[in-house]
Fold this protein.
Amino acid sequence: MHKAGFVNIIGSPNVGKSTLMNALVGERLSIITSKAQTTRHRIMGIVNGDDFQIVYSDTPGILKPAYKLQESMMNFVHGAVDDADVILYVTDTVEQSERSDSIIERVNHSGIPTIVVINKIDLTTPAALEALVEQWQTKIPEAVIIPCSAKEQIGMTGVLNAILERLPEGEPFYPKDTLTDKTLRFFASEIIREKILLNYDKEIPYCCEIEIDTYKEEPTIDRISATIYVSRASQKGIVIGHKGERLKRVGQQAREDMERFLQKKVFLQLFVKVQEDWRNNERQLRRFGYDQQ
């Protein structure tokens, strides 16, 4: 008997969805930072066993949209509830947000097998965790509740076993050697975006979008040219920094990460351009890949 299915990961920002996704896949496919809204697209990771294939999908964190980019991000979340074989709803030991209520209601009416993962159990007490389990069992009565710590690799076997128990029978959707549906261009842009999230404060990271202009693969080196788009002219100088130092630091960190990811040398060029209010421009959002679920 072979099992195969789509396991879609949803939840609020900052609950560790991307850390969980990376732990389950065994590869660093999703951006991990302490800032909210680090995931903007659905990112797929594929795990194969002798008798199963799990297609994981990490989605943006649940939020109340403030502009068209965030509306598109929430479309990814709604789509993830509708087309899953198994829903992995991720919360943690400190989440207080009520923004997820409509999504929880949607999950409860979906009829799709659901696993609630309470992440970051290393940051709580047994008594508090027991109360959380009861709370989530009330919120999503049909779900199985599994506490874990993705960062510390605690309870991950329990998460995997629960997924396998609920996975439907079927043949693999992708070849056995496939890790993800995303291209090298996509991962290059995500690595650059992660470094922007780590190096800039306040609104700057959320006003930036990355476009890979050229990506040339050679036997011993990949040559990549990318443009960082910002929403306003005043942001361009902030991103570049005094004598280009801040942009140079972003480029160096991104190149080093790319080389680890690709296992080869990388030559990276970065440019900064202004695309006024791109987050509310439907044409620009489509150009950056936000029209697809």
Observations:
- The chain is about 35% helix and 25% strand.
- Residues 32-37 have pLDDT under 50 and may be disordered.
